[in-house]
Amino acid sequence: MTNRTPVTKAIALPIRPDIRPMSASDLGDVLSIEQRCFPRPWTRGMFEAELRNPLSSAFIARLESNGRQVIAGYGIFWVVFGEAHILNLAVSPDFRRMGLSRALLEFSIIEMKRKTASEVFLEVRRSNKAARALYKKFGFKESFERANYYGDEDAIVMTREI
Ligand SMILES: CC(C)(COP(=O)(O)OP(=O)(O)OC[C@H]1O[C@@H](n2cnc3c(N)ncnc32)[C@H](O)[C@@H]1OP(=O)(O)O)[C@@H](O)C(=O)NCCC(=O)NCCS
Question: Which among 89, 97, 138 is the best mutation to test ligand 1's pocket, defined by most ligand atoms within 8 Å of the CB?
């Protein structure tokens, strides 16, 4: 990643993950979470392309588990002409419902603001109740649908002002 974001701690959350820029050495752990999280997971090449893309911010959240820091989740977004787009957000099944995606989203919104974005959007699978609930809780509105966006399912496009 060329536009590295500063290391930042999440605030006012039940857990305090260490959130930092994703690097190539994280990709083994990131890919194993990705494969457990999505029916059509991103490939290593897709993550590598994001790390090279100057418009992209990719970051990981680490937590202490059994005495060592492990990657528990990650997020990737772009900011283009004042508009942010969340491309990926995932939390390992081992660390769900602990507020980690909230921490990742809070971190993202702060970074998007810093990069002068004024709105953010994302696509989510219609069947992904957990993610839709998460984003709604975070102030996103369901704006419109993209038919067959995933090849096997429609996407709901959710938007929020920043
Ligand atoms: C969706 C996902 C990121 C949520 O991560 P998480 O760290 O477990 O979420 P949090 O603990 O921060 O939950 C925040 C809020 O989101 C909502 N939420 C999260 N998981 C939920 C679930 N399984 N069912 C319903 N609501 C859920 C709740 O409102 C929750 O608040 P609460 O715990 O106070 O009720 C995680 O389930 C995941 O990685 N899923 C697979 C990948 C994915 O779908 N990514 C999003 C692609 S658009």
Answer: 97
Which atom of ligand 1 is nearest to 135's Cα? 16
Nearest atom in ligand 1 to the alpha carbon of residue 124 is 48
**pTM strictly above 0.85:** yes
**Tokens matching residue 161:** 């002002």
pLDDT of 148 > 70? The answer is yes
Helix axes 44-52, 27-37, angle to 10 degrees: 120
CATH of 8-161, one of 3.40.50.80, 1.10.3720.10, 3.40.630.30, 3.40.50.12500: 3.40.630.30
Tens digits of residue pLDDT in 37-58: 999 999 999 999 999 999 999 9
- DSSP structural state of residue 162: -
Q: How much distance in Å is there from the Cα of 129 to the middle of ligand 1? A: 9
Q: Would you kindly state where each structural domain of the chain is located, as residue ranges?
A: 8-161
What burial class does residue 27 get, using C-beta atoms within 10 Å of its C-beta: 0-12 exposed, 13-18 middle, 19+ buried? Answer: middle
